[in-house]
Amino acid sequence: MVIRQESLADVPVQNQVLPKGGPKAVPVSLDFGAANGQAEWILDAQNMQALGRFSNLQTIWVDNSLNTQLLTITMGGSGQVLKVQPGKQGYYPVLSANPIYVVFSVPATNGTDATVIMLLNFPCPFAEWTGV
How far apart are CA 122 and CA 80, in angstroms? Predict the structure, then answer.
């Protein structure tokens, strides 16, 4: 089957760009166990971007070492989906459109612990390892 080029649309992303305000890291803790049965957290960073506190998202550092579930990260705009295995940590380059909109989800909330992420506005190469 042939992909019709007329149906393709581009999504502007700002990867491999040094941000104007310098490199920044924004820590976020996602406690799926305390989410009252919810298996999803949504980050809509439009307000943070409008205030000039965070310009763009290029990399997500994930500490999924204490989580017993697969963590799925879905990037709004680009549709990129990352799957971080239980017990893993790593740097994950992302294709994030502006405004930043990210969905973090796990298949079930039973037996999960907090997952810590860092939103990074600068590029890092992919790296993944088993957490201790």
Answer: 18
Tell me the three state secondary structure of residue 98.
Answer: coil
Cis peptide before 12 (omega within 30 of 0): no
pTM value is 0.82
- pLDDT tens-place string over residues 98-124: 889 999 998 866 656 778 999 998 999
- Beta carbons of 62 and 115 less than 8 angstroms apart: yes
CATH of domain 24-130: 2.60.120
The domains of the chain are located at 24-130
Handedness of CA 132, 39, 32, 126 (dihedral sign): positive
* CB 57 within 8 Å of CB 100: yes
